[in-house]
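Extended Data, record Histidine triad nucleotide-binding protein
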Amino acid sequence: MSDCIFCKIINKELPADIIYEDDCMVVFKDIQPKAPVHVLVVPKKHIVSLAKLNSADQDVIAQMMMNLSAIAEKVGLSDGFRTIINTGKGGGQEVDHLHVHLIGGRPLPGF
Ligand code: 5GP
Ligand code: ZN
């Protein structure tokens, strides 16, 4: 989508600290990290949010979820990690392109 920041990062029209990329997703550092490790796992397909998924997105979602643990290892979170997906205005989603926050590297409070 032409006015989407994350699509622009995916298309290399905007810079980002990309730490992993494959056919399905891009992983880059969050510009305002909330922890020593804070990366965003972003599908290359412009999916707006979890609330807007359709059946054609199943493979993309599965591939992202199946890869999270390997990505966490790659960024040094072999001991465990937190994942957050904000959805919609009420969920605090600021960028309307689905993304998983992968966070760790400090003690994280209980939720
Ligand atoms: P949300 O609130 O939508 O779940 O999270 C959006 C995240 O994207 C925020 O943590 C914010 O810091 C991050 N972000 C917003 N714009 C950019 C950007 O241009 N580059 C990077 N790397 N992260 C961004
Ligand atoms: Zn997008």
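Summary. The mean pLDDT is 97.
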